[in-house]
Every structure is written in structure tokens, then in C-alpha cells.
Design brief:
With 245 residues, the chain is of the alpha/beta class. The protein has 9 helices and 7 strands; from the N terminus they run αααβαβαβαβββααβα. The strands form 2 sheets. It has a 5-stranded parallel beta sheet with strand order 2-1-3-6-7, sandwiched between helices. Strands 4-5 form a two-stranded antiparallel ribbon. Strand 1, helix 4 and strand 2 form a beta-alpha-beta unit. Helix 2 runs antiparallel to helix 3 and helix 4 runs parallel beside helix 9. The two termini are 28 Å apart.
């Protein structure tokens, strides 16, 4: 059996990434002929979850997302991408879904599985009233749920400090705004930073966090937007390089 046959036979999507990693380590140690380049390709590829929430197809948010996805793929990573508006994601959280372990519909279940598997998360959305759009807030409500993203210690009825469950090492949030930076900070206190960094990702166990707000979009020039997109590309390359562990 050749090394390429080994890859095609055992690099099955049914196996967890960590199981494939361990398998290739054993193969290389025991039989000694699995080329280093194939082994390294398996261990540096990451699963990146990308979530977009903007209703206008030609928006700058979409341009950011296109650069994000292209850069991740160019760096050899597996990308799971969702355009919540295009997919018409239902943001309404039914009462029946609130308890841990409660049944959810198939679409939400798939989102939960992808969030659990993600090794990196990138979210793109506009700043609306200092908050994410309602469709994205609903995604958080329904997908970033107990038993998936966090849990409480045994015998804790919910009043304690949650334990984060997400295995993603890094989360990035790209925002757009029509509010000048100084006013955003001094008048509003930049609530999106607190929401994403502290209230969501830190609580769910993701400690490496980066966020960038691009402003003021409505008066920006083509040159400015190109520079912003170059910055996006640079950020993704920094946090999700081709030689990621």
C-alpha cells in the first residue's frame, strides 16, 4: 500500500481530526515511509468557521468575507461558511430549545456540530445600535448553547461561572460602522467589544480574540476600502497562517 493510498483510505471525514492526526503519527513511527510533506499537510490544516450577517449582497461586509474565505483556503484550511441572511437562518429561539440537551431542528443541530468542530472562528457583521444584527444574535442564542459552547459544574443550577467548551483556539470579529472611532469609544463605550470578547468567546473558552471595526464606511473611498481589505488579509494570515499548528 502506498502512502497516498493510506491518505485516501484513512483521511475520512467520518474520523475526527485529532484521530487522523494520531493515526498518521503512528504510521510514520511504525512503518516509516509516510512522506513528511503529507504528514505535515494533515496537521497544519484547520477547520475554520466563518459566519456572515449582512442583508446586502454587495456590502463591504461581503467584501470582507470574500477576502477572509479566500485567504483561509489559500492557506490550506478547511472553511465552513454560512451567510445567515442568504440561508434565511431562523433567529427565533423557542422556549423548548433552552434547556441543555433539548432537541433542536436539523439546521441548528448542524450549526452546533460545526461550532464544536471549529478550530478557529471568524464573524463578520455591521454595528447596528451597538449590537449584532438580530439574525446573528439569534444564531448565538440557538447555536452557542449549553452543552455545545459551555456548561455548568455538576449540581450547579446555573448561578455559577460557566465552563467553556469550545475547542477553537482563536476568534476574530470584523465589524463595519458609520460612527467615528472617537465617538464610538467615548460616547458608547464600544459595546461590541464587550459582547464578543467577554460575554461570548471568553465565557465559552476561546481566549485568543481579535476584533477590528472599520469606520466610517459610508464616507470611505475605494482606496480606503482596498487598504482595509488588505488589512483583513493580513490579520487572517497572522492568526491562521499556512503553517498553523
Amino acid at each position: 500500500m502506498t502512502s497516498l493510498t493510506l491518505v485516501s483510505t484513512f483521511a475520512s471525514p467520518v474520523l475526527a481530526e485529532e484521530d487522523i492526526y494520531e493515526y498518521f503519527k503512528c504510521v510514520r513511527l511504525v512503518i516509516g515511509f509516510l512522506p513528511e510533506v503529507i504528514f505535515e499537510e494533515r496537521i497544519k490544516r484547520m477547520k475554520a468557521l466563518v459566519i456572515l450577517a449582512h442583508p446586502e449582497k454587495g456590502s463591504f461586509n461581503h467584501a470582507i468575507t470574500e477576502v477572509v474565505v479566500q485567504t483561509l483556503k489559500s492557506n490550506g484550511h478547511d472553511v465552513i461558511f454560512h451567510d445567515l441572511y442568504k440561508e434565511r437562518f431562523d433567529p427565533i429561539l423557542p422556549y423548548s430549545e433552552i434547556p441543555k440537551g433539548a432537541p433542536v431542528d436539523s439546521a441548528v443541530e448542524q450549526h452546533c456540530k460545526e461550532l464544536i468542530a471549529a478550530q478557529g472562528i471568524i464573524i463578520i457583521h455591521p454595528n447596528w445600535w451597538g449590537q449584532p444584527p438580530a439574525i446573528l444574535k439569534g444564531w448565538v442564542d440557538r447555536v452557542v448553547r449549553p452543552g455545545v459552547a459551555y456548561e455548568f459544574e455538576e449540581n450547579d443550577s446555573g448561578e455559577g461561572i460557566p465552563i467553556g467548551l469550545l475547542k477553537a483556539a482563536t476568534a476574530i470579529v470584523f465589524n463595519t460602522s458609520n460612527t467615528p472611532r472617537e465617538r464610538e469609544l467615548n460616547t458608547f463605550g464600544d459595546p461590541l467589544e464587550r459582547i464578543w470578547k467577554d460575554c461570548i468567546f471568553d465565557l465559552c473558552g476561546v481566549k485568543d480574540f481579535y476584533r477590528r471595526m472599520f469606520e466610517v464606511v459610508v464616507t470611505s473611498t475605494s482606496k480606503q476600502r482596498k487598504e482595509w481589505l488588505d488589512e483583513v488579509r493580513g490579520v487572517v494570515n497572522e492568526y491562521f497562517p499556512a503553517d498553523a499548528p
